[in-house]
Design goal:
Largest sheet of chain B: 6 strands, mixed
Number of strands of chain B: 11
Number of helices of chain A: 0
Helix content of chain B: under 10%
Order of helices and strands of chain A: EEEEEEEEEEE
Largest interface: A-B, 22 and 20 residues
Oligomer: heterodimer
Number of helices of chain B: 0
Radius of gyration of chain B: 14 Å
Structural class of chain B: mainly beta
Strand content of chain A: over 45%
Shape of chain A: globular
Shape of chain B: globular
Largest sheet of chain A: 7 strands, mixed
Structural class of chain A: mainly beta
Distance between the termini of chain B: 37 Å
Helix content of chain A: under 10%
Order of helices and strands of chain B: EEEEEEEEEEE
Distance between the termini of chain A: 36 Å
Strand content of chain B: over 45%
Chain lengths: 116, 112
């Protein structure tokens, strides 16, 4: 299957700082990328959907000014958690959908964010 | 009502047992259906897509019932390595794009 990488894999930061997470599709072009958040013992919750070159579509309840998503190319999307707080501590996972492989998502390994 | 509902389990079964999971979805416009497997602290991995005619992949069989809006996953001859959380995923079109909705997952523990 296609490969998606995420960086960093884990990060610990102080409250009030911003954290950028990168999601890269390594061997395919991801026309659409999805960002999810998963709290312990809960399922993945879709945060936003982004298509290359256009603004992300955020799910209800997700603050677009807090979670900045940029999908500048077909192989890279970034999620920036601005002014992070302890309640933002979570497992953030991205996925990419390849052109021609509709309805199949390829997930990154996730980024574990801990805000102190 | 949740868009995708699953029994969280855990299902504790002995090795070699057959176990079945069900999942219901609320949006009748749903188009695609999947079972994913997620190990602790890892990303989900696609186990299989679910087709209307039902499909089988080795020890795993998936079924879709559109009329009743549920999908199922059957695992035969359970192995210790099958222990994981199984996520039901449904995809439907919305506002010119589409969304994937994940169930909360069903935990399976296969015991020696």
């Amino acid at each position: 299957g296609a490969v998606v990488s995420q960086h960093p894999s884990w990060v610990i930061c102080k409250s009030g700082t911003s954290v950028k997470i990168e999601c890269r599709s390594l061997d395919f072009q991801a026309t659409t990328m999805f960002w999810y958040r998963q709290f312990p013992k809960q399922s993945l919750m879709l945060m936003a959907t982004s298509n290359e070159g256009s603004k992300a579509t955020y799910e209800q309840g997700v603050e677009k000014d807090k979670f900045l998503i940029n999908h500048a190319s077909l192989t890279l999307s970034t999620l920036t958690v601005t002014s992070a707080h302890p309640e933002d501590s979570s497992f953030y996972i991205c996925s990419g959908e390849a052109r021609g492989f509709y309805n199949e998502q390829f997930f990154g390994p996730g980024t574990r964010l801990t805000v102190l | 009502r949740k868009e995708v509902e699953q029994d969280p389990g855990p299902f504790n079964v002995p090795e070699g047992a057959t176990v079945a999971f069900n999942c219901t979805y609320s949006n009748s416009a749903s188009q695609s259906f999947f079972w994913y497997r997620q190990d602790c602290r890892k990303e989900p991995k696609l186990l299989m897509s679910v087709y209307s005619s039902g499909n089988e992949d080795g020890r795993f069989t998936a079924q879709l019932n559109r009329a009743s809006q549920y999908i199922s996953l059957l695992i035969r001859d359970s192995k210790l390595s099958d222990s994981a959380t199984y996520l039901c995923v449904v995809n439907y079109p919305t506002s010119g794009t589409y969304k994937y909705i994940f169930g909360t997952g069903t935990r399976l523990k296969v015991l020696a």
